[in-house]
Amino acid sequence: MKIKDIFKMGEEKAWEQFVAIRFADNNGEAYCPACGCVEPYFITTRRKWKCRGCHKQFSVTSGTIFASCKLDFTDILAAIALFVNAAKGISALQMARDLDVQHKTAWVMCHKLREAMGMGSDDVMLSGDVEIDGCHVGGHVRPENRKEDRKDRRLSENKDADRRVVIALRERQGRTLTFVEKTEAAGVQHALARVEPNSVMHADEAAHWDTLHAYYTTTRINHSEQYSDGYACTNQVESYFSRLRRMIRGQHHHVSPQHLHQYSTEAGWREDTRRMDNKALWEKLTGAALMAPVSRSWAGYWQRGAA
Ligand SMILES: [Zn+2]
């Protein structure tokens, strides 16, 4: 979707787009999100409906992550287009400039869209050939310049508290699931929980993956010797990590451990949808955002003066 086309359509058409996508499961006809009643009154002047059953009023964004977002519909649709068109991710600063909104508004919007990208992946199971690996992100204990101030970085008290490992499970030709942990070894439990028993796991030579052999047919690749023998490799999970690294380095520079899982999810979504065109991506993300139940972590954020 082109930004130009979104602004050309104007608020009325943008709102109609929202309605069509939000109520797609009822042929684009509004229904009450509270009780499901399908014949609400439309209050034209307020672009709202009133339910005949439970008498509650609702708008096209009620119950979605955009509830009480004060941005224009064109701005929201444009934000989604900017977000999906940026293959390496987009910083809140950049989005704020492009949309001419406050930095904080753009920052919340970006996080909400990342949340929408992760919706529905909680009960996804992987099968077939599945690669696993971990990647250290963030944290840095700066060596001091003067010798007497130098810290022993091997000591645990000097290890940076911000350092995390992103663990990725990637089904070949399928989905990518990501987890943020303090150690790579924690990935074993995620594999056991999310990879079907009859799958083949592919991992590198790190000792903690040895456990996988007890549960799955497992191949190993020793990266100090070679990167692939054609079958035993972790190339697909590696390309996920290079996307994540490029995203963090190129756009965000620093990611706090608190938000790392959202950036990991975003990189996974982008990797898994890399062959879709921009319009299809825009529709996919808009649909996910409007189907999404009200954001738990971000609920109420707009009201706190963000818009
Ligand atoms: Zn109702």
What do you see in this structure?
The protein is of the alpha/beta class. The protein folds into two domains: 94 residues; 145 residues, Nucleotidyltransferase, domain 5 (2-Layer Sandwich). It is 38% helix and 13% strand. The chain contains nine helices and eight strands. The strands form two sheets. Strands 6-5-4-7-8 form a five-stranded mixed sheet, with helices on both faces. α2 packs across α8 and α4 crosses α7. The chain is elongated and about 70 Å long. The C terminus is likely disordered. The structure holds zinc ion. The site of zinc ion (ZN) has 8 residues, from loops.
Offer a quick outline of the entry.
With 307 residues, the protein is α/β, with parallel strands linked by helices.
Helix percentage range:
25-40%
**Distance between termini?**
24 Å
Radius of gyration, whole Å: 23 Å
Q: How are strands sequenced across the largest beta sheet?
A: 6-5-4-7-8
CATH superfamily of the largest domain: Ribonuclease H-like superfamily/Ribonuclease H
The shape is: elongated
How does the major sheet shape up?
5 strands, mixed
Total domain count? 2
Average residue pLDDT: 86
Examine the secondary-structure arrangement and name the CATH architecture of the largest domain.
2-Layer Sandwich
Number of strands: 8
H-E string? HEEEHHHEEEHEEHHHH
- CATH topology call of the largest domain: Nucleotidyltransferase, domain 5
Helix and strand content put the structural class at alpha/beta
Runs in which pLDDT lies below 50 for 5 or more consecutive residues are 141-145, 303-307
Strand content: 5-15%
